[in-house]
Write a structure and sequence with these properties.
With 279 residues, the protein is of the alpha/beta class. It has a domain of 195 residues: TIM Barrel (Alpha-Beta Barrel), CATH 3.20.20. The protein contains ten helices and ten strands. It holds the Pfam family Aldo_ket_red.
Length: 279
């Protein structure tokens, strides 16, 4: 998967989802983010057009405030939120979605995801998202932290195939088989924790690549994501980081370097295991 398949132009660029909706390929994540209103406002001023939140982050209201106050028209901003585990099930998902809309004070969400594959619940949760999608309350629906067997199980009964799978993705956790499965089913892969929760900055190999291209390690990682056709949502509340993370469109990683980063995959997670979580 290279940039030849996905045109990478600038910060306003998008990947097309299965239903034709265009999702910005680079966005701002706000998990454990300080000063969310300021961070989102700065990101929108810088040119970001996607903001990724979740009910469990307890900052949907701040995201909504920044989006509503922005000079950027609402229809140009892509807002993602997620259904938390304790809200899963058909009716409770519908209620949770309404609560998210109420907190953001937005008329619709662009993308709503199932946050984790809660056993025995996620199929009913998905059925509720399909209802919301049919009612045009949300422009696209998808999942987060789903492995191949979760996706296959969900798709066996689904009337709408998930449009996005947001998964931990970084040089130590590539999961190429899962990436390939998603692409073959036109499920857009999206990287969360692209910086390995800060651990990527400790890697000598990444430092060497940063020096080679005269870029930061973060810029190398984000460019690698996009060249693999993976959308990405680095989180930051620091002004300079938000700006430099977006400065990745004036260079291209050589295919050998993309393959080298791929080869660092050792199956190491910095977040919970989708097959073994207890929350």
């Amino acid at each position: 998967m290279s940039s030849s398949r996905h045109q990478l132009t600038d910060l306003s660029g998008t990947f097309e989802l299965k239903n034709g909706v265009r999702m910005p390929y680079l966005g701002l994540g706000v998990f454990q983010c300080d000063n969310v209103v300021e961070a989102v406002t700065l990101a929108l001023e810088t040119g970001y057009r996607l903001v990724d939140t979740a009910s469990i982050y307890e900052n949907e209201a701040e995201v909504g405030e920044a989006v509503r106050a922005s000079r950027v028209p609402r229809e140009e901003i892509f807002v993602t939120s997620k259904i938390w585990n304790t809200d899963q099930g058909y009716n409770s998902t519908l209620d949770a979605f309404e609560a998210s809309l109420k907190r953001t004070r937005l008329d619709y969400l662009d993308l709503c995801l199932i946050h984790w594959p809660v056993e025995g619940k996620y199929k009913e949760t998905w059925r509720a998202l399909e209802t919301l999608y049919r009612e045009k309350r949300v422009r696209a629906i998808g999942v987060s932290n789903f492995l191949k067997h979760h996706l296959e199980d969900l798709m066996a009964d689904a009337t709408v195939i998930p449009m996005v799978n947001q998964v931990e993705f970084h040089p130590y956790l590539v999961q190429q088989e899962l990436v390939d499965f998603c692409f073959s089913n036109v499920i857009q892969y999206q990287a969360c924790s692209p910086m390995m929760r800060g651990n990527v900055f400790k890697l000598d190999a990444m430092n060497a690549l940063a020096e080679k291209y005269s870029k930061t390690i973060a810029q190398i990682v984000l460019r690698w994501d996009l060249q693999k056709g993976v959308a990405t949502i680095p989180k930051s509340s620091k002004k300079e980081r938000i700006i430099t993370n977006a400065d990745i469109f004036d260079f291209e990683l050589h295919p050998d370097d993309v393959a080298f980063i791929d080869s660092m995959d050792c199956g190491k997670r910095f977040g919970p295991d989708p097959d073994n979580f207890d929350f």
